[in-house]
Amino acid sequence: MSPSFNDDNSLFNFVVKEGNGVKGLVDSGVTVVPDRYIQPPHHRINKQHTTESLENLTIDISELNGPKHDQVVKAIAHAAETLGFFQVVNHGVPLELLESLKVAAHQFFNQPAEKKAVYLEGLSPSHMVKYGTSFVPEKEKALEWKDYVSMIYSNDVDALKYWPNECRKVALEYLKTSNEMVKKLLQALISNLGVKLDDSRLDELTGLKMVNMNFYPACPNPELTVGVGRHSDMGTLTVLLQDGIGGLYVKKAEELSPGNEEWIEIPPIHDALVINIGDTLQILSNGRYKSAEHRVRTTSIESRVSVPIFNAPLPVAKIGPLAELVTRDGVARYKEVVFEEYMNNFFGKSHDGKKSLDFVAI
User: Fold this and answer.
1) How far is Cα 175 from Cα 182, in angstroms, rounded to an integer?
2) Tens of pLDDT, residues 92-133
3) What is the DSSP letter of 87?
4) Strands 50-51, 263-265: parallel, antiparallel or unpaired by DSSP?
5) DSSP calls for 271-322
6) Rg (Cα) of the chain, in Å, rounded?
7) Is the pLDDT of residue 51 over 80?
8) 215 phi, psi to nearest 5 deg
9) Distance between CA 241 and CA 55 in Å, rounded?
10) What's the CA gap between 5 and 231, in Å, rounded?
11) What gap in Å lies between CA 329 and CA 38, rounded to an integer?
12) pTM greater than 0.90
């Protein structure tokens, strides 16, 4: 028998403050989506406005090391300039590790709520680990149908000490084996702009690394909810592992008005990783590269997991349009800020498309 939530406060306390999450809500036996999770119609994902074809945006990045290097750089840059999303194969991350990550994610979220709640904000033994639900539930009118655990990387020792035991080893290996790929992708994108950055600056632009494990429980009314609302990522590059269920959508063009938008589903491809451009790279490129506005639908069939790595600048790093591009373009489209300020603004509001970029707009 499902519990009775007399009002929004009792639901909020159960899901958010007590750490039961959406998983706990589903396990309690709810058969309809509670009102607090029902999105307004313009935020729901209408499949009539979606397409599924994305075969031409799967890139074999092992060819960056061979005679097709220039051709691959152009393909990466084209994806970054248009959709802001692409998929990569032969990326150097062991395929068996990708399967282990999915298993570990399910193991973590299938634990009793009290085991996960030790990582709630304010209770977690380290600021580097946070378990939660939705995005910023205190500021959201409609909650997102998602639980997550977020693990910030500082060094191997701390990761193995503080990250959850169910996933620490595989999450750390995932992060470390993806580093070379991330560096190659960023080098390709920067060189395509006709700009040279030294290794220390490239490292600074991806110096803040965070591994998330996201859990989207099966939903009784997926047409009324979203797993993640429409947003762009704040960092430089995001690496994402999907499972085989699907549900990730990217907005095709920025200029289309609400209601007329077209969204492309990023189909799960076995052995591939999804790459998306973040706000930082749009700012650095003076608008040439596009941070991808994306969102996630829910499903009634089975629970879904995804595992992103967010590669962002160090908090103390300054981000702004590269000087060479401002000279070439004749205008700076964004102001320079310290990344920590941008990050605080990003996390201070609920998801709302790409409005986070308004913080640096000129």
Assistant:
1) 10
2) 999 999 999 999 999 999 999 999 999 999 999 999 999 999
3) E
4) parallel
5) T-EEEEE-HHHHHHTTTSS-PPPEEE---SSS-EEEEEEEEE--TT-EE---
6) 20
7) no
8) -130, 120
9) 17
10) 30
11) 44
12) yes
